[in-house]
Amino acid sequence: MKIKILIILATVFVLSCQNTPKENTEQTETPINQEVLANAQKVEINIEGMTCTGCENTIQNKISEFEGVYSVKASYEQGIAILEIDSIKVDIQKIEEAINEVGYKATGHKKIYE
To answer: Domain limits at 57?
Structure first.
C-alpha cells in the first residue's frame, strides 16, 4: 500500500513539473530609477533541488516578494538565480532562508558586481 502511494506521489510530481508552462520563465523585472542605481548590486545564489521550469517560477516568485529586488532569473539547468537588488534594502540571508522554506537549498551566493 505504501509503495502504491509513493508511486502515485512521484507520478504527480513528475507530471506537474512537465506540464508547467514555459512562458512563465521570463525574467521578472521592476523598473530601476537613477536614485537606486547607486545601491544596485548583482548577486548569484546557488540553489540545489530545482528540476524544472516550475521550480524556476517558484524561486522567481518567492524572491520577487522582497522589497528592493529589481529583477530575478532562476535557472534549474545551472542551479542558480541571478538577482539585481538594492544592497541597502535586501538581506541576502533572508532570501536564502525563504528559498529553503519553499523546499530548495540555497548553498551560497556571490556578488557579480557592485
So the answer is: 2-113
